[in-house]
Amino acid sequence: MANGKIKADTLEHSTAGTVDTQYVVHGSAKAWINIDMINAVTLDSFNSSSITDFGTGQFRDHLTTAFVNANYAVTTSAMDPTKTDNGGTNRTADGTPSNAGQFVMRASAYDNTPNDVPSAAGTANGDLA
Prior knowledge:
Layout lengths: L9 E4 L3 E4 H7 L3 E6 L4 E6 L1 E8 L2 E6 L9 E8 L8 E11 L2 E7 L10 E7 L4
Antiparallel strand pairs: 1-2, 3-4, 3-10, 5-6, 6-9, 7-8, 7-10, 8-9
């Protein structure tokens, strides 16, 4: 099969207008994941091949397509929706690139005690290899 290219400066949807392709190439998250840490399962994801549970409140997301290097940005969030006050209780969360092909997500209670939570999410932004 021959390899081909489609080149365009803008993309147009039949009812939603247009978007500059630079936004799509440079501005969109290149990977995201939503996991249930309690049951160690991926709830939904993009550009994620698997996860590894390596401790309470600590998971590694393995990417399908790696970044060009480990200098990309990771943003995470965590929530325990089993708590009934206001629909859930936020947890502290952080994420760190491990290398070009994976990033770490951590969740903890406000006293910094690691917690496995039923809803933790992470996004990664940068240049893909």
